[in-house]
Every structure is written in structure tokens, then in C-alpha cells.
Design a protein that fits this description.
272 residues, alpha/beta, Purple Acid Phosphatase, chain A, domain 2, 7-stranded mixed beta sheet, 5-stranded mixed beta sheet, 7 helices, globular
Length: 272
Amino acid sequence: MSTLSYVLKKSQKIPFNKSSKIAIMSDCHRGIGNHNDNFLKNRHIFVAALTYYLQNSFTYIELGDGEELWENRSLDEIKDAHKDIYELMKQFEERESLYVLYGNHDINKCCPGLGLKNTECREGLILRGLGREIFLVHGHQGDLLNDYLWQLARFLTRYLWSPLETIGIRDPTSAAKNFKKKTRVEKRISAWCEKHEQITICGHTHRPVMPLPGEEIYFNCGSCIHPYAVTAIEIVNGSFFLVKWMVKTDSLNSLYVEKEGLGGPYDITLYL
């Protein structure tokens, strides 16, 4: 887990306070709009969530795997398929309220290629305020194959598991799709958090985690490709919230997107 310690040491520190409003999301896996684009099924939910955060003056932080660059080679094709998404992100950028991290599936992306000319793609970030430092990182750093051997993992995904996925065979090397692997990665990162007494928010495993104060200090904001839902961690009024955005039906059978609370609010100062 020395990789996490290295990323923590080199990460930029961003100040926040009790009046800050921050939305943290991860693992969109935006593709090129074809049948393998896992983002498509929740695309409208994501747009609704991001629009809400923009209209309500949130800072938006994307924790990695925003783009699916293992199954797809072209960043331009992804940009063309999801132009409205990047237009929304550009509005956050213009307000200086956008931060983008990379994960294992988009480790070699560049934000200017997405039209985000003033945004640096980072490996880690630290939110500093209220007497706490909150470490933000994708989380593949706790996963040997997807960290040190990411090029091999990309090769296997691109040429073996991606074609097999079309007939229903899941990738056993993926922490998001393999329960045992997911659990191992989470345990490694959680142990590192406890050892270093470091509050940490990750993505990567796609499983949302919101610990109670006094328990663990490992958090996970989940993903944007859950079946019929998008999850996020919000920091509002100095507290953590875990939320889920999903489509619902009203009494007139009209569809709408609504946010539900899954955990919190928990005061940040109660952790550690």
C-alpha cells in the first residue's frame, strides 16, 4: 500500500469550510455511445444530478474512471458521444469548482482533450478544513493488477473480457464485478486508512460505503453505473452525506429524477 502513501504525499491540498458544498462522484465509465457503453443507461440521471450540483453552487470532484479508455481507444469519440456532459463540466471549470482525478481505466487521459483546458488530471487530492484532511483517490492503488500491472489488465479487458461481456461473462479481474476481489481491495485500503489515521474517500469498487462516526474512516462514493441509480458523497454544512439519484414515477406516470439519502448527515469532526 506504499502507493497510497506516495499519492497522499504529493497531492495538492484544497481548503474547505463549513459553508463549502462539494459533490464527489466516481466511475462513470463514459464510452462511445455503443452497446458496450455502460454509462448510457444512467446518462439522464447523471445529467440531472450534475445540473442540480451546478445550479446549487457545488464544487464537483470526479474520482477517476470518468472515461472508459480500456475498452475504447479514442477520447475524441467519447467526447463526441457525451458533448452535453462535458459542457456541464466546463461550466464548473469556469467557476473554478471542478477537480478531476484519474483511475485505472482513464490513467492516460488528458482533460484538455475533453475541452477542459484549465483542468489538471490528478492522481489524488486533499480537502483540508475543519481540523481534518480528507484524502481523495480513485482506489485502484490498493489493487495490484489494476495499479502496477494496469497495462496487462487493459489488454485483457480490451481483447478478452470486453468481447465476452457481450454474451454475459463478467470480468473476474475487475474489483467492481468480482465480489471477493472487491472485498479484498476494500480491506486493504481500510487497513491503510486506520494505520495512517487518514480519512479517505475512494471509488473503484463501485460499492458505496458510509461508515458511522467512531467506526472506520474509509468511504466510497460508489459509481454512476449502478442498475438504475447514481451514487455520490456530498459534503454540506461540514457533514458527510451518501446519496442516491434515481428515476421515479409520479401519480401521472411521468418520470422524474430524485435524490435519496443513504447515509448521514455525519459531522466530519466526529471522525478521528
